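worker-3 :: picked Acyl-CoA dehydrogenase/oxidase C-terminal domain-containing protein
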Amino acid sequence: MDFTFDDQQRELADVARDFFVAAGPADRVDAGPAAARLAWDNAVASLGIQALGVPGELGGLSGAVELAAVLEESGRTLYPAPLLTSVGYANGLLSCVGGAAHDLLRQVVDTGRAVAVVDHPSVALEDGVVVGVASAVVDAETADELLVLIGGSIVHIPGDAPRLSIEAQDGIDPSRRAARVRFDGVPATVLAVNADEAIATARARAQGLAAVEAVGGIRATLDSVIEHVSTRRQFGVPVGSFQAVQHRAVDMLLDLDRAAAAAYHAAWCADADPASLAWAGPLALRAAAAGYGRVARGAIQLYGGIGFTWEHHAHRHFRRAVALATRFGAADQQLDQGFAAIKG
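worker-3 :: tokens ->
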């Protein structure tokens, strides 16, 4: 198993890095709905992001590994567009089932539409309409389409459907918007029923891609910390020369290596070994999110006083780490999901 990028993948990662860096650093992220929507439109226009990770027969351009390379770069700068939600999760759901779902996926790829996913136990389908209220739905404000997961069914609702209301909610990660979505008898189209296996596959794939995004955050945080401790001086020498600081930096590097190995293994499984994805995805996210949290906490300490300020980017990476850790359920649930898949 070789996780080394080929020339085309390296070129894609380089182009993505240049794009996300030009968009602005993490400490100036504005994740208001208008800014998040503009960020999505720019990624569609510059990278064709909506087509990455989608099979060619459905209008896509690449596999999951290529999408992972781009998501890692977006994680470095905490890019506020709904890349993980729409391309990483929603497109995966649509590609895992056929018929009308594939037709919708082709439209999404052709037009660059953003899709959010609603997966909440209080939402139900009654006589062809959706009712209920879902809280903390990530990226709902910027979505053109909604996919609602209800009891093993995948239901499609246009973002401008009647009797659908979306209200912003405060979340721990200011670079990724959350919202309360209210369904007051919203007409819906059922794309698939008895799709539990497809939903589980798409969720595991999205967990692996979320892990890759965490790898980008870890890498950016570690690079920034190394630069800081190499130039910040105390007692006439760089603080990076102190053994305690060096030990902390080495621990961060180990977290990066572990997270990257698990995350890219999951992305590889999505393309080459789908049977292993069921455990590789959740375990990769558990490992990467935990490592991201440790690295972000360590960075806040190593930066000293400035690491505790609102203006510094350190707390933004910590917030993203916390949000990713619980994006697809609590950490213990991810472990249970992975171990259950291993046991078969």
